[in-house]
Specification:
Number of helices: 7
Shape: elongated
Largest sheet: 5 strands, antiparallel
Strand order of the largest sheet: 1-2-3-5-4
Order of helices and strands: EEEHEEHHHHHH
Strand content: 15-25%
Number of strands: 5
Structural class: alpha+beta
């Protein structure tokens, strides 16, 4: 796959259908503990808890926040499927996610709320730094990966069924059985 540099209106690098996104913020003086608590609260929110795999914005592959420089800086990194503008629209219209992120970003310099989509985009672009390099270890979108996991689970059910042995002898199933053997 090729890494693509997008237009200025789509600031991250893209590999296949997925774009990267890196934001750097300055933490307001004296607010690092409150920010740490807000991040901890986010991590305990349904969809964001480890193992939940149900983030409200369905095109996100992963998201992480990193406090650094003695908690004076905040890095937010994610990758998502589709164009930047669509991701921004999804983020702004996500309801609970926007509220959760408001609780985090209020501890960063320059943040004055996200009353509309244009303000959101301006705030994000002000913190965005395009990656110097971006690579992925798999080609699929979140939707494709979730479907592949459902298909794999369903196929495992077939393999585990006591009456499956006869059906699994059919030569058309050989490629699936070879893959399942890994």
């Amino acid at each position: 796959m090729t890494v693509t540099e997008n237009a200025a209106s789509d600031p991250g690098l893209t590999v296949g259908p997925t774009s990267e996104f890196s934001l750097f913020f300055r933490v307001k003086e004296g607010e690092s503990q409150a920010l740490r608590q807000a991040l901890s609260d986010l991590q305990q929110t349904p969809g964001y808890r480890p193992g939940d795999y149900d983030v409200a914005i369905k095109t996100i592959h992963e998201a992480r926040f990193v406090l650094f420089d003695d908690d004076t800086r905040l890095l937010f990194v994610t990758s998502f499927d589709g164009p930047w503008d669509a991701y921004m629209d999804d983020f702004f219209n996500s309801g609970p996610t926007l509220a959760l992120f408001d609780v985090i970003f209020r501890h960063t310099e320059g943040y004055e709320g996200l009353p509309d989509l244009a303000t959101e985009k301006q705030f994000i672009l002000g913190a965005q730094e395009r990656a110097a390099a971006y690579a992925r270890n798999y080609p699929g979108t979140v939707k494709q990966i979730r479907k592949a996991l459902r298909v794999a689970a369903a196929f495992q059910e077939v393999l585990d069924h006591p009456d499956a042995a006869a059906a699994l002898e059919h030569p058309a199933l050989r490629p699936l059985l070879d893959e399942a053997a890994d």
